[in-house]
């Protein structure tokens, strides 16, 4: 079974991925942030490194999806291959931070990869307001995220909502994380688990 968690920067994807992996004894596939050779450069000079970063993520996630299907294990994935192509890359293109030529090349590569993979069995989307995202980003204190603007987060949020509205790859659960504290409140985590249980068991 392939479960994936989607959501904006700071929505709590990695934290929830780890908590659910522990609860269900699923294997966690986390986003490759530490070893990503482009992230620092990208946040310092977005226009120069946007294409390189997006291709790196695309390659990394395509490899992950293939490994998930081949493994036959129950795996929960932190962020999907779709988010880069439907949210991050188009946003960089729209902001003038990725050229038309690079964006067309990127889209062509994604379309080819998408034709070779299946969507997750269940997608969990973490919906969050901008103030909540900003608070979470500041709390975790990653140096390269200090330069992320509220405008950038807002643009991403709009694209996330549009993507989720038309999502048709499989089962979908939407969790409003503004109203939940699944880290420190076991009841909040329990309510998320109950929702997921119902979807997995096909109760509704």
3D architecture notes:
There is one protein chain. The protein has about 200 residues and is α/β, with parallel strands linked by helices. It has one domain: P-loop containing nucleotide triphosphate hydrolases (Rossmann fold, 3-Layer(aba) Sandwich). The chain is about 55% helix and about 10% strand. It is built from eight helices and five strands. The protein has helices spanning about 15-25, 40-45, 45-70, 80-95, 100-115, 130-140, 150-165, 185-200; strands at about 1-5, 25-30, 75-80, 120-125, 170-175. It has a five-stranded parallel β-sheet, sandwiched between helices. Helix 4 (about 80-95) packs antiparallel against helix 5. The protein starts with a strand and ends with a helix. The model has no long low-confidence stretch (mean pLDDT about 90).
Strand content: 5-15%
- Which consecutive residue ranges, at least 5 long each, have pLDDT under 50? none
Tally of helical runs: 8
* Sequence of secondary-structure elements: EHEHHEHHEHHEH
- Give the radius of gyration: 17 Å
CATH architecture: 3-Layer(aba) Sandwich
CATH superfamily descriptor: P-loop containing nucleotide triphosphate hydrolases
Compute the average pLDDT: 89
Which bin fits the share of residues in helices? Answer: 55-70%
How far apart are the termini? Answer: 18 Å
**Order of the strands making up the biggest sheet:** 2-3-1-4-5
- Assign an overall shape: globular
Sheet with the most strands, sense and barrel status: 5 strands, parallel
CATH topology: Rossmann fold
Overall tally of structural domains: 1
Q: Structural class, from secondary structure content? A: alpha/beta
Q: State the total count of DSSP E strands.
A: 5
InterPro entries: DCK/DGK, Deoxyribonucleoside_kinase, DNK_dom, P-loop_NTPase
Protein name: Deoxynucleoside kinase
Organism: Hyunsoonleella aestuarii
GO molecular function: kinase activity
């Amino acid at each position: 079974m392939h479960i994936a968690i989607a959501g904006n920067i700071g929505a709590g994807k990695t934290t929830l991925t780890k908590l659910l992996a522990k609860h269900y004894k699923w294997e966690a596939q986390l986003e490759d942030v530490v070893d990503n050779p482009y992230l620092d450069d990208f946040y310092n000079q977005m226009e120069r490194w946007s294409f390189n970063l997006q291709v790196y993520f695309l390659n990394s996630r395509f490899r992950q999806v293939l490994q998930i299907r081949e493994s036959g294990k129950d795996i929960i994935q932190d962020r999907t291959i779709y988010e880069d192509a439907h949210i991050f890359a188009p946003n960089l293109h729209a902001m003038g931070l990725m050229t038309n030529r690079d964006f067309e090349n990127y889209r062509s590569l994604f379309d080819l990869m998408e034709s070779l993979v299946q969507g997750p069995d269940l997608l969990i989307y973490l919906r969050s307001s901008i103030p909540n995202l900003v608070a979470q980003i500041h709390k975790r204190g990653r140096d390269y995220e200090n330069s992320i603007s509220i405008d950038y987060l807002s643009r991403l949020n709009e694209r996330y909502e549009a993507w989720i509205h038309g999502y048709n790859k499989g089962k979908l659960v939407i969790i409003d994380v503004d109203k939940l504290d699944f880290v420190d409140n076991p009841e909040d985590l329990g309510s998320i688990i109950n929702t997921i249980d119902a979807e997995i068991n096909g109760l509704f």
